[in-house]
Amino acid sequence: MKLNKLQLRNYRNYQNLGLDFPHHLTIFLGENAQGKTNLLESIYVLAMTRSHRTNSEQELIGWDEEFAQIKGRISKGTSELELELLLTKKGRKSKINHIEQKRLSSYIGQLNVILFAPEDLSIVKGSPQMRRRFIDMELGQISPVYLYNLTQYQKVLKQRNTYLKQLSEKKQTDEIYLDVLTEQLVDFGGKVVLDRLHFIDRLEYWSNTLHTRITNQRERLVIDYLSSFSFEKRDLSLIQEVFMQELQKSRRREIFRGTTIVGPHRDDLRFLVNDQNVQTYGSQGQQRTTALSIKLAEIDLIKEETGEYPVLLLDDVMSELDDNRQIHLLEAIEGKVQTFLTTTTLDHVKGKMTVDPDIFYVHQGQIERKKAE
């Protein structure tokens, strides 16, 4: 998979921009706050229809403009696709080959991307919400069915929480509607949990392979999925049955609190290095190596699931890694993954890669292509 062309209109500080990407490595070089990250973000938004930096689409639209537009031409196998995303104050529209897509699951996954930014190094030490978002964004790219079930689960969860709040405030007394919402929540929630479990299995396999290599065989990485309810077998009917039982046991507490307290929206991940919880007891180096292994594992996982390598976006992450981890990162991507990298200096990549990069100098939203030295 390859992004061949990117066009931006009214996107953040880019009023009208068109870039071609003939090479496998593209470097956006410049000082901080010049617009480098905006370029990577636009590629991410083109793929995922949402930003990793903000939940407000208005922030993506240029100052005093009514809309922002992102277009991209991608190669998948032997075919080419035109992707387009239009962002307005009223919402967003996505198109594939100029045909509007009504369902999110039919658009997401056309362009698979992996974003690695400095904040991703905190995926190990960060909040459970950060880890759930990581699972949902990555799994949603490669499984339209998962994305559909997750979207439906979140929709029902919102409705159920609203009704629980009404019950807690005595604005409603009839719990029959709550029963209906609970059945729907269990149906979609069980499917979400089962898909996450299979995803974590594959992620653990590829992550441990990389982690072992980076640590010269000294460390073994295990990833545990921590569900908010316990089940003995990975069977959908069993998971849904236990989920329903837990919700029934928690009903009075949920009504009192006005919110759903059990379900995949409360789940988490645990990372073990040599059987020790790296989140609690690991060194900063172990935590960073774990995060790096997890992010790089996505490359092979997505290739395994889709048959195509994803596009990799590295947002100023090289400066956060020591030489050993930089080398392992570059070795993992060289020659097989189209990579876009932002940096304030070329010192991190000089002499560490054999491919010739395209280098774009970015200054105050202006871009100039330079040849590699």
UniProtKB/TrEMBL annotation:
GO MF entry, a single one: ATP binding
Provide this UniProt record's keywords sorted from A to Z: ATP-binding, Cytoplasm, DNA damage, DNA repair, DNA replication, DNA-binding, Nucleotide-binding, SOS response
User: What are the RecF/RecN/SMC N-terminal domain coordinates in residue numbering?
Assistant: 3-350
Instruction: Enumerate the InterPro entries for this protein.
Output: DNA-binding_RecF, DNA-binding_RecF_CS, P-loop_NTPase, RecF/RecN/SMC_N, RecF_2
Which HAMAP family does the UniProt record give?
RecF
NCBIfam families recorded: recf
Q: What Gene Ontology cellular-component terms does the record carry?
A: cytoplasm
Protein name as annotated: DNA replication and repair protein RecF
The UniProt gene name for this protein comes to recF
Tell me which residues bind ATP.
Answer: 30-37
Family in the record: Belongs to the RecF family.
Report the subcellular localization: Cytoplasm
User: What's an example GO BP annotation here?
Assistant: DNA replication
Q: Which PANTHER family match?
A: DNA REPLICATION AND REPAIR PROTEIN RECF (PTHR32182)
Q: What does this protein do?
A: The RecF protein is involved in DNA metabolism; it is required for DNA replication and normal SOS inducibility. RecF binds preferentially to single-stranded, linear DNA. It also seems to bind ATP.
**What is the superkingdom listed in this entry's lineage?**
Bacteria
A Pfam match is: SMC_N
